[in-house]
C-alpha cells in the first residue's frame, strides 16, 4: 500500500522531506519510524492524515504520516 | 521588596515637568509589576471616557520585578495604555535590552502624560533625566533614529526605544520599537506615543538589580536553566529554528490560515517554513537580554539583512496574503521594524485589503497601479510601505488597521479580528480552546494571553484533543491567569514551555524576598485578568464582544486536516464564565471581586 511520509525539523537531517513508500498491509506507525531509525521517544507530534496517531496506529492505503520532534512556539 | 527599584519616573510632556515618586508596594504585592501593576495604575488614572489619542491618556512603561536580574529571559517590559484600537487596556510586551537598562537606571516604571507642543525625546542616564528637542528625528525611521540617538548620547551601551513614521501618523498598527528589531507591537501603542509628540526614549543605567535571597536564587536558577535546556522546545526547537518552525506544524494541523482565513491549509507552506529559513536566510541567532533560548533571528535576504521575521510575521505576510516569496516576506517584516508597525496586524491588514480587492469592494482605480491581489509579493511589500507612511488615500485607510479598513468598505466582517485586534496565525476553527482564548481575550485577537496551542498542538504540559470542548474552559482560565503572571514579572512567555507555576513562584520569592505560595501567585494573575475585564465593561464592551468573526463560527474550513470544522464558541462560553466566577453576561460577580480584593 502507498503511504506518504513527511519529516520535519531535525528529522530531515540525513533523511528526506517527503517520500512515498510502498508498505505491506497492516503496517503500523512503529514499523515506519523504526525503518527510519527514529524512536518513539524522539517524536513529539505524529499525525496520520492530520490527526494524532500512536506507535500502534495501523496505516491504510494513501495515508500521510507527518512526524515532528519537539519543536516550538510563537 | 527587593527586585523593585521602588521608584517611578513621571514625565508630563505638556508642562515639560519631570517628577519622581515611590512605587506603591502594597499595589505591587497584589499586581506584581509589568502588565499587572501598569494595568492597575492605568485603570486608576485613565478614566473610561478618555480619548486614547488625547493628552489625557497616559503611557505606563513598566518593567518587571525580575527585569534586569539574572532570571532567565528577565529583560522584558510592558507598554500599558488605553488602546486607541478598542479602548481596552493595551499592554504590549517587548524583549531586547531596553527594559533592563531602565531598571539599571533605577526605575521600575516611566509614566508619560500630556502632550508636547513640539516633537521631543527623553534621555535617561540613571537619575539624570532630560526632555530634549526631537525636531531632527521626527519623520525619521526607527533605524535612523536609533543610530542618531546613540551618537548623540555618546555611550554605546545606551539603548533606544522609539516610534517610527507609523506612530507619528497615528496608525492603529503602530508599534513601539526598541533595539531596532524588538517591538511592543500590539494594540496600536505606537500611535499613543505619537499623539504625545514623543519620538523616543534613550536609556542607560549603571546600577544593578539585587536578589533578596542570592543562595535561593542560585538554586532555583540552576533548576530552571536545566529545565529550559532539557526541554525539546526551549532547548532545541526554538534555538535551532526560531519561532517559524511552527509553519509546518500548524499547517499540518490544518489551522494555518490562508488568504485571510478563506482556507486553513497552504499546500506550499514549506517554502516559508522555519526549516527553509534556517537553510536559506539565517545568519545568526539574536537573543534578548539574559535569554538562554535565543529564538530571535538575524537573517539575510535579497538586498538586505537584519531582524528576521517571527512565525506570526512569516504567516501574516506569507500564508495570510497567499505569498510564498520568502525574500519579500523578509522585506515586509523589515519595513515593519523600520517604520514601527505591528507585523501581525500590518500583514493581516494587507490580507483583508486583498480580499476586499478580490470581492471587488476596493476598485482597481483606487490601487494607483500597484497590485493588491493574493499571492502578489511585490504588491504586498509596496502596500506595506504605503501603510507605514499612510501614503495616498488607500495607504491612509490601511494605516487605520484591518477593522476600520473593512468597515470603511461596508464589510467589517471581513476583518478577522476580535475587539478590532487581528487574530494571529492559528485558525480557531480547528483548535477549540485557543479559539475560546481569542474570544475572551481582554485586549482582543491575540495568541499570547493564554497560548492554548501548547497543550492542544504541542502536547505541553500534556496533550489535549484540539477539537474537543471537554475541560477547555478551565484550561483557558489557568493559561490566561498564569500568562498574566509571566507578563507581570518581566520574563518571556516562551519559558513556560519548560517551566511551571512553582518555578515562577520560586524565582519571584528568591528575588523579592517574599513568601508567595503558588496559589497566591496564580491569584495575582486572576486579579490582573479581572481588572482588565472591568476596564472592558466600563468602556461599554459586553458579552457580545466575546466573539469571533462570523466566518470562523459559520463557514467550515475547506481543506487540510481540519476540513469541515467551525469554532463552537456558544457551547464553550457559558462554561468559561462560570469557571471565572462571572455571571451569565460575563460580568465578575461581587463574590469574585471580593475574593480577589479588587
Ligand atoms: S525566547 Fe526569544 S523572545 Fe523570548 S526572550 Fe528569548 S530571544 Fe527573546
How does this structure look, described?
Chain A is mainly beta and 74 residues long. Chain A has one domain: Ubiquitin-like (UB roll), CATH 3.10.20.30. Chain A is 9% helix and 31% strand. Chain A is built from 1 helix and 5 strands; from the N terminus they run E-E-H-E-E-E. Chain A has a 5-stranded mixed β-sheet with strand order 2-1-5-3-4, with no helix packed on it. The N and C termini of chain A lie far apart (37 Å). The mean pLDDT of chain A is 94. Chain B is 41% helix and 13% strand. Chain B contains 24 helices and 17 strands. The longest helix of chain B has 21 residues. At the A-B interface, strand 4 of A face helix 8, helix 9 and helix 18 of B. Iron/sulfur cluster binds next to loops of chain B.
Topology:
The complex is a heterodimer of chains A (about 70) and B (about 600).
Chain A: E1 2-7, E2 18-22, H1 29-35, E3 45-48, E4 51-52, E5 63-68
Parallel strand pairs in A: 1-5
Antiparallel strand pairs in A: 1-2, 3-4, 3-5
Chain B: E1 7-12, E2 17-22, H1 25-31, H2 34-45, E3 59-63, E4 77-82, E5 89-94, H3 98-104, E6 109-113, E7 120-125, E8 128-133, H4 142-153, E9 159-162, H5 165-168, E10 176-178, E11 182-184, H6 189-195, E12 198-204, H7 214-230, H8 232-241, H9 246-252, H10 274-280, E13 282-285, E14 297-301, E15 304-307, H11 311-317, H12 326-339, H13 343-358, H14 377-389, H15 392-399, H16 401-408, E16 417-418, E17 421-422, H17 432-440, H18 453-458, H19 472-487, H20 501-512, H21 518-538, H22 550-554, H23 569-580, H24 590-596
Parallel strand pairs in B: 1-6, 7-12
Antiparallel strand pairs in B: 1-2, 3-4, 3-6, 4-5, 7-8, 9-10, 9-12, 10-11, 13-14, 14-15, 16-17
The complex binds iron/sulfur cluster (SF4).
Amino acid at each position: 500500500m502507498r503511504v506518504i511520509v513527511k519529516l520535519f525539523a531535525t528529522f530531515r537531517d540525513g533523511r528526506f522531506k517527503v517520500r512515498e513508500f510502498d508498505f505491506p498491509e497492516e503496517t503500523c506507525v512503529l514499523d515506519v519510524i523504526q525503518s527510519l531509525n527514529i524512536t518513539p521517544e524522539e517524536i513529539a507530534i505524529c499525525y496520520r492524515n492530520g490527526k494524532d496517531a500512536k506507535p500502534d496506529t495501523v496505516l491504510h492505503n494513501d495515508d500521510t504520516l507527518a512526524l515532528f520532534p519537539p519543536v516550538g512556539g510563537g | 521588596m527587593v527586585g523593585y527599584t521602588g521608584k517611578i519616573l513621571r514625565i508630563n510632556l505638556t508642562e515639560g515637568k519631570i517628577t519622581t515618586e515611590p512605587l506603591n508596594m502594597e499595589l505591587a504585592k497584589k499586581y506584581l509589576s509589568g502588565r499587572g501593576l501598569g494595568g492597575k495604575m492605568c485603570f486608576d488614572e485613565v478614566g473610561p471616557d478618555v480619548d486614547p489619542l488625547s493628552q489625557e491618556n497616559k503611557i505606563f512603561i513598566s518593567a518587571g520585578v525580575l527585569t534586569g536580574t539574572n532570571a532567565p529571559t528577565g529583560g522584558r517590559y510592558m507598554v500599558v495604555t488605553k488602546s486607541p484600537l478598542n479602548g481596552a487596556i493595551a499592554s504590549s510586551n517587548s524583549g531586547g535590552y531596553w527594559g533592563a537598562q531602565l531598571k539599571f537606571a533605577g526605575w521600575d516604571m516611566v509614566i508619560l502624560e500630556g502632550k508636547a507642543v513640539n516633537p521631543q525625546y527623553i534621555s535617561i542616564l540613571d537619575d539624570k533625566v532630560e526632555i530634549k528637542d526631537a525636531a531632527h528625528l521626527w519623520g525619521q525611521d526607527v533605524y535612523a533614529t536609533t543610530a542618531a540617538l546613540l551618537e548623540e548620547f555618546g555611550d554605546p551601551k545606551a539603548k533606544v526605544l522609539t516610534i517610527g513614521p507609523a506612530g507619528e501618523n497615528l496608525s492603529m498598527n503602530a508599534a513601539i520599537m526598541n533595539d531596532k528589531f524588538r517591538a511592543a507591537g500590539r494594540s496600536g501603542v505606537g500611535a499613543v506615543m505619537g499623539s504625545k509628540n514623543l519620538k523616543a526614549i534613550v536609556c542607560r543605567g549603571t546600577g544593578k538589580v539585587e536578589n533578596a535571597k542570592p543562595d535561593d536564587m542560585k538554586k532555583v536558577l540552576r533548576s530552571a536553566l536545566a529545565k529550559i535546556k532539557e526541554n525539546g522546545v526551549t532547548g532545541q526547537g526554538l534555538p535551532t529554528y526560531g519561532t517559524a518552525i511552527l509553519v509546518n506544524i500548524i499547517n499540518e494541523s490544518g489551522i494555518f490560515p490562508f488568504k485571510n482565513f478563506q482556507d486553513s491549509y497552504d499546500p506550499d507552506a514549506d517554502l516559508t517554513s522555519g526549516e527553509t529559513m534556517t537553510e536559506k536566510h539565517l545568519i545568526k541567532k539574536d537573543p534578548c537580554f539574559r535569554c538562554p533560548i535565543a529564538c530571535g533571528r538575524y537573517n539575510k535576504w535579497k538586498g538586505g539583512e537584519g531582524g528576521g521575521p517571527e512565525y506570526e510575521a512569516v504567516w501574516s505576510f506569507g500564508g495570510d496574503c497567499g505569498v510564498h516569496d520568502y525574500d519579500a516576506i523578509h522585506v515586509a517584516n523589515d519595513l515593519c521594524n523600520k517604520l514601527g508597525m505591528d507585523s501581525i496586524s500590518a500583514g493581516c491588514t494587507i490580507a483583508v485589503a486583498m480580499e476586499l480587492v478580490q470581492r471587488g469592494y476596493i476598485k482597481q482605480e483606487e490601487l494607483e497601479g500597484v497590485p493588491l491581489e493574493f499571492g502578489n509579493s511585490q504588491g504586498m511589500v509596496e502596500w506595506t510601505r504605503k501603510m507605514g507612511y499612510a501614503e495616498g488615500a488607500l495607504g491612509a485607510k490601511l494605516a487605520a488597521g484591518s477593522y476600520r479598513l473593512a468597515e470603511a468598505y461596508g464589510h467589517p466582517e471581513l476583518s478577522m479580528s476580535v475587539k478590532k485586534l487581528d487574530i494571529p496565525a492559528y485558525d480557531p476553527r480547528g483548535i477549540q480552546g485557543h479559539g475560546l482564548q481569542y474570544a475572551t481575550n481582554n485586549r482582543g485577537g491575540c495568541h499570547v494571553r493564554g497560548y492554548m496551542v501548547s497543550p492542544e498542538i504541542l502536547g505541553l504540559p500534556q496533550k489535549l484533543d484540539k477539537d474537543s470542548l471537554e475541560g477547555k474552559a478551565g484550561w483557558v482560565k489557568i493559561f490566561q491567569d498564569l500568562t498574566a503572571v509571566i507578563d507581570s514579572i518581566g520574563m518571556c512567555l516562551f519559558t513556560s514551555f519548560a517551566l511551571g507555576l512553582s518555578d515562577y513562584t520560586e524565582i519571584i520569592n528568591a528575588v523579592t524576598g517574599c513568601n508567595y505560595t503558588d496559589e497566591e501567585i496564580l491569584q495575582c494573575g486572576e486579579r490582573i485578568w479581572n481588572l482588565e475585564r472591568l476596564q472592558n465593561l466600563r468602556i461599554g464592551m459586553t458579552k457580545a464582544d466575546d466573539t469571533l468573526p462570523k466566518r470562523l463560527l459559520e463557514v467550515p474550513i475547506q481543506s487540510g486536516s481540519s476540513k469541515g470544522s467551525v469554532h463552537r464558541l456558544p457551547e464553550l462560553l457559558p462554561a468559561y464564565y462560570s469557571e471565572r466566577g462571572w455571571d451569565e453576561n460575563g460580568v465578575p460577580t461581587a463574590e469574585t471581586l471580593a475574593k480577589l480584593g479588587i
